[in-house]
Every structure is written in C-alpha cells, then in structure tokens.
Design a protein that fits this description.
160 residues; alpha/beta; 19% strand
C-alpha cells in the first residue's frame, strides 16, 4: 500500500462527517469523498436501506455523481476517500472508472477488497492498477462503525 499525502487526513475527516450523517439516518456509517487534484467533485453516503438499493454504497454514490458532473464514466486522476475499505462490488466500479487512487480508513478483514481479504486493483491481475492507501484515520473510522453496530445490537428486540 502506498504512503499517505498531506491532504489525506483532511479529506478523510470530511468523509467521516458524511459517515456520521449516514449513521444518523440508520444506514451503516460510511462516507466517501471523490477528488480531482485538490477539488472535491462528489461525495456519497451509504443508503442501501433507505433507497432499497443494494448497490447504494457510499463509493458508488460518489462515483455516479462524479461521472455525471464530469460527463464521463471514466475518472482518471481521481482519488476516492472512503471511511471503510471498499467491498468487491465497489472495487469493481472503481476499476471501471479508472480512478488513480483509493484512500480508506477502517480495514475490513471479512469483506475488504482493497487489501484485507482481496487485493483488487493492486494485485496486477487486471488491466488497471490503483494506488491504495489504507488506515487513514482508522481509529475514528473503526470506532464509528463499532459504536453503530453495538447500538444496533443493544436495540434489537427479539420477537420471542
């Protein structure tokens, strides 16, 4: 995995703010910011529950918005900042969009596809390779997810 740049923490803090908003809406708290250079061109939050859309991950929402804004489904030179390591679906979309770089916060040892479980985009098996940086603000990102799932478990009422 690549080393972080000076702006990684700044953009990840913005993604964390979006993740908090998603959590307040009852969604898994994941936020994403997509940049070109120093400019934010799109953002996204998880919304599969409220939108009844299994593909409505924060990364996908940000990619869709950016592609519409740019007027192209290819986003070369773009960097995606996301609070949780992307899944297989999201990494596939990231590869198709030809992003230059992915920066994520919390590692996902069960379904992470940017290095934890799979190394999509950095394993040399595809026609496009990414620069990947993981663990930026990982304590904050991980803590937010853990608190969300703990609260959900504590509020779960068994029907029995």
């Amino acid at each position: 995995m690549d080393h972080n740049t000076s702006n990684d923490t700044t953009f990840m803090q913005l993604a964390l703010s979006l993740a908090h908003s998603a959590g307040e809406q009852g969604e898994v708290p994941v936020g994403a910011i997509l940049t070109m250079g120093e400019e934010i061109i799109a953002e996204g939050t998880n919304s599969p529950i409220s939108s009844h859309d299994p593909t409505a991950h924060a990364e996908i929402i940000a990619l869709r918005k950016a592609a519409r804004k740019i007027g192209n489904y290819r986003l070369p030179g773009a960097t995606l900042y996301v609070t949780l390591e992307p899944c297989i679906m999201c990494m596939g979309a990231i590869i198709h969009a030809r992003l230059e770089r992915v920066v994520f916060g919390a590692f996902d040892p069960k379904t992470g596809a940017a290095g934890s479980r799979y190394a999509i985009g950095s394993d040399g098996l595809l026609n496009h390779n990414l620069k990947i940086t993981g663990g930026i603000c990982k304590v904050e990102c991980s803590s937010l997810l853990k608190a969300f799932f703990k609260a959900r478990r504590n509020n779960f009422q068994s029907p029995y």
